[in-house]
Specification:
eight-stranded parallel barrel, 32 strands, Immunoglobulin-like, alpha/beta, about 20% strand, TIM Barrel
């Protein structure tokens, strides 16, 4: 790659910095072989294109260096591979060829996307060690659960010792608080040996507010007229944008090639302002496909509030043209509003009386080509949005959004396969952006949550679990960081202002109770408590003083559902080439189905409601032998074999659906719901 240091054929090091605003750059180099030696100052050669170069034959891996700009400020390398002393310290030379991946790694080709069960985690709070090795120590737990992919929250070097990772300043340097670069590679190698994919969350829409010095010597990185909620917008289509774009494309290739990640999740790409053709996203996807994507299966996932279906189009053979999938926030928001009743923020777009809206209950009607029906006796907009997002991908496919001041959002997505969406009940945002970081099991009944799991974990879109969700973790996931004093005050007050219009936080006294993101205790409270797993039967509920078995119960349910998914649902997913159809017959009551290319049908009948309901005449179950799950409160779920693929034969009360009940069927008979 053109950025950062390069180990040369003769064993030396080539130093390279793109600094178009600098007239003179000095390399400040300290040899690791001479500890305590004062850094030597060596003038670099300036080229006409803004690049500064110097090859130093004496330099070796482990040496440290900085760049001094115009005899003034000394800065780290923006493409540093490691920062042992944090974002303001010197960079360290890393030899990317030194790690021994072993023969087994050369045979790893990844896993197909239809097998994906994703587990999102934060390295620092997932386990007591807070490092890469502590993740590896929980592989047995994740494999027993049924996870096939680990997704790490961003690793790019951030200021201080505690951060979610979205304040990264040096995008090529995995943060030193989690371990050495080779320890990250060891984690990925070990995961591959156990059959686990490893995905990485990356942030290309902004740099963090502390530790980034690009504006001092490469101001062309930033667009003068655009801003994001987190800082200056990146210049992707203005003058000098070529090297800016290349910086981010090379970063994606770097994680996939040097660290052998199996995919990337790109954060909030709707904040990438780019009028180029192709734009940065399309060019990045093309370069990945032409590079590491040629040798193994690489999965690129987006968080994209624009709901742009074009990004996820498939080839005639069913392969992604550009990106594999998008996080399905629409489904989350609609389902969360249904089970919690919350209406703050984006949830206002999913309430039942929100005016003009997607779906047949509004004057706008369904998207072209959609099949989304409602029983006129039981119209419920929230449930229609759940059904639409579940079967078609996006709930908003061009309709106006009240949360976004009436701006239209989204494009038609029914032609996309379910695999183009990632479904979830929780993720880092949905827990951490709450004032007190509550998890969903602390907001709703166990019966409601059981039904929601039965829906999400068996739907044909890949599911994502957020760390601890699988055992009803009692620890919150709070927003935490570790900025310097001046910035820390601004972040704390800004965090509290964000909630000023939220229910329960309209006065200063209530907002003062929101945890301080910079307090080390906020970070410590967010760490998972594994006593239920490490010392079974000894985990004690601090309120009642009794043994708490709910965590084992939740884990058992999730494990059984994921085993059923792997045996019964995953083989069908490649055969479902487009969205499905749905019928809504009351609040939380819906029937959906997807057809496969070999003439089978995957069908859901659900009553996500606390009251039983008579099954409408339009909702007739398929043949009884096709039942793979019959879930209802107070009874063990009746499931098909989790290994043989055979289906259950159990009596079904066809006239009524129990409260919070979910049934899944696989049938050869295709009939209208």
């Amino acid at each position: 790659m053109p950025f950062g240091t390069e180990i040369t054929a003769n064993g030396g090091v080539n130093f390279r910095l793109w600094a178009p605003a600098a007239q003179q750059v000095e390399l400040l180099w300290s040899a690791a072989s001479v500890p305590g030696q004062e850094a030597q100052s060596l003038r670099m050669h300036r080229a006409e294109d803004g690049w500064h170069h110097l090859e130093l034959t004496e330099a070796r891996a482990g040496d440290r260096y900085r760049y001094q700009i115009d005899a003034g400020l000394a800065v780290p390398d923006p493409a540093s591979r490691f920062q042992p002393d944090d974002v303001h310290g010197p960079s360290q030379i890393v030899d990317p060829r030194a790690f021994d991946w072993g023969a087994a790694e050369s045979a790893w080709r990844g896993r197909p996307w239809h097998e994906a069960v994703i587990y999102e985690l934060h390295v620092g709070t997932f386990n007591a060690g807070g490092d890469y090795a502590s993740i590896e120590s929980r592989f047995d737990h994740l494999l027993k659960l049924g996870v096939t992919a680990i997704e790490l929250m961003p690793l790019a070097d951030f200021p201080g010792q505690r951060n979610w990772g979205y304040d990264g300043a040096l995008l090529y340097a995995p943060d030193a608080c989690y371990g050495q670069p080779d320890e990250l590679k060891q984690l990925i190698r070990a995961a591959h040996q156990r059959g686990l994919m490893v995905l990485l969350d990356v942030v290309y829409n902004h740099f963090g507010p502390e530790g980034n010095y690009l504006h001092c010597y490469a101001p062309d990185f930033f667009h003068p007229d655009h801003h994001t909620p987190w800082g200056a917008a990146i210049n992707l289509d203005g003058p000098q944008a070529h090297w800016v774009r290349e910086f981010f494309i090379q970063n994606a290739l770097y994680w996939l090639e040097e660290y052998r990640f199996d995919g990337l999740r790109l954060d909030a790409v709707d904040r990438l302002l780019d009028t180029s053709q192709p734009d940065l996203l399309d060019e990045l996807a093309q370069r990945v496909q032409a590079g590491p994507g040629c040798a193994r299966q690489i999965h690129l996932v987006l968080e994209n509030d624009h709901n742009d279906a074009r990004r996820y189009e498939r080839t005639p053979t069913g392969q992604p043209r550009h990106f594999t999938a998008q996080w399905n926030d629409d489904l989350h928001h609609a389902l969360h509003h249904l089970v919690t009743g919350e209406t703050d923020g984006p949830y206002q777009d999913f309430i039942s009386d929100a005016g003009s809206s997607p779906g047949p209950s509004s004057g706008s009607g369904p998207a072209p080509g959609s099949v989304l029906e409602s029983n006129a006796r039981f119209e419920d907009r929230t449930t229609q949005l759940i059904a639409r997002a579940l079967t078609q991908g996006f709930a908003y496919q061009g309709e106006p959004s009240a949360f976004r001041d009436g701006h239209r959002r989204g494009t038609p997505s029914r032609h996309l396969p379910p695999a183009a969406m990632v479904n979830f009940l929780q993720n880092h945002d949905q827990a951490g952006n709450r004032a007190f970081g509550e998890r969903l099991h602390q907001l709703i009944s166990a019966e409601a949550l059981d039904a929601a799991f039965a829906l999400i974990l068996l739907a044909p879109s890949p599911p994502l679990l957020f760390m601890g969700e699988e055992f009803d973790a009692d620890s919150p996931f709070l927003f935490f960081c570790d900025f310097g004093p001046e910035l820390a005050d601004a972040v704390r007050e800004g965090r509290r202002r964000e909630f000023a219009r939220s229910y329960g936080f309209t006065d200063a006294a209530s907002r003062a109770s929101i945890p301080d993101p910079n307090d080390p205790e906020t970070f410590t409270r967010s760490r998972l408590d594994w006593r239920w797993r490490d010392h079974p039967g000894k985990a004690v509920d601090p309120d009642t003083g009794s043994a708490d078995l709910s965590q084992q119960r939740r884990f058992s349910l999730c494990r059984r559902l994921l085993a059923l998914r792997q045996a019964q649902i995953a083989p069908l997913i490649p055969l479902i080439e487009q969205g499905g159809d749905a019928l809504v017959f009351g609040r939380g009551r819906l029937s959906t189905h997807w057809r496969t290319s070999d003439h089978r049908q995957l069908r859901l009948i659900a009553n996500l409601n606390g009251e039983p309901v008579e099954r409408p005449s339009e909702i007739k179950p398929p043949c009884q032998s096709g039942l793979i799950l019959d879930h209802r409160p107070g009874a063990e779920p009746t499931t098909a074999s989790e290994t043989s693929g055979s289906t259950a034969r159990v009596p079904i009360r066809e006239s009524h659906l129990a409260p919070w009940s979910v049934q899944w069927w696989v049938s050869v008979t295709v009939r209208k719901p």
